[in-house]
# Entry
Amino acid sequence: MKKLSYYILSVFVAVVFFVSAIAFPESVKYTVDSAEATETTSYTAEDIRSLQKFLLSKETPDLSGKDYDLNNDDIWDIFDLCLMKKFSSESNILIAYFTRAENVLIENPEEIDTDATSSASLLLPGNSAVMANHIQSIVGGDLFSIVAENLYPADYENCLRRVSEEQAENIRPSLVNHIDNIDNYDIIFLGYPNWAYTCPMPVFSFLEEYDFSGKIIVPFCTHGTGGLAGTVSDIKKILPEDCKVMKPVGISREDISDCKGDIEKWLLELGFYRK
Ligand SMILES: Cc1cc2nc3c(=O)[nH]c(=O)nc-3n(C[C@H](O)[C@H](O)[C@H](O)COP(=O)(O)O)c2cc1C
# Structure
């Protein structure tokens, strides 16, 4: 009986909200504006699920101590849920990427010929970083650069030699940066260049460092002429079974300077909309 009354209350509140949004758009706008003035912006996916469950009365979790009343009207309703989703939408996306330009040891920067094609992938921003920035400009989220402690040689042949050795020995290079709050992220975009038909090994170090159970991974890759090669299947081998890997995108380095449209199209296909 208690559950039924919660359910009826939730439906009633939802109907009132939508009717008032149509009939009194200004009053609804005012409420949102006043809520935006609050400083509460750190809601997690778990908070959203708790309030959603409460409003739908499937169960009544302990909400004590939670400041869910975002528009300060002394009730928890669907309005607060919408605001919570709005506030948390940027913090539940992580865009992690590896790019050569942020992983290269350049002893004599003045010796780099900035006009030479062979130097292009030594210069900032790297191609994966360009893609990561486009993704962030469209869906929001936090950027994270995967950087190996032991940087790679600037000389291409030497770099390739080290990559081959790392692959042969299945090495997991140590990383410089770490994420403290991986639980805050539900969706992880993962970007990298194709390095000798697979991901750079530091990408695998990153994947093995955290528990991605129940999360969504969205791979994005840049390459020469080799496409995505084995990158996505190698990523899947490492991730837990209940981690969903979405359709990846691959952009040739030739097309990087003009790839924002392709990235936006791919994101739309996946169901991500402009923030
Ligand atoms: C060590 C190394 C190995 C590479 N191996 C491949 C490859 O097997 N296939 C391919 O298509 N491109 C390969 N590339 C080219 C890069 O994938 C491409 O230049 C990419 O756009 C670089 O992205 P970044 O600037 O983010 O590092 C390789 C590049 C390097 C440095």
In short: The first strand starts at residue 93 and ends at 97. DSSP finds nine helices and eight strands in the chain. Confidence is low (pLDDT under 50) at residues 19-40. The chain has two domains: 2-87, 93-270.
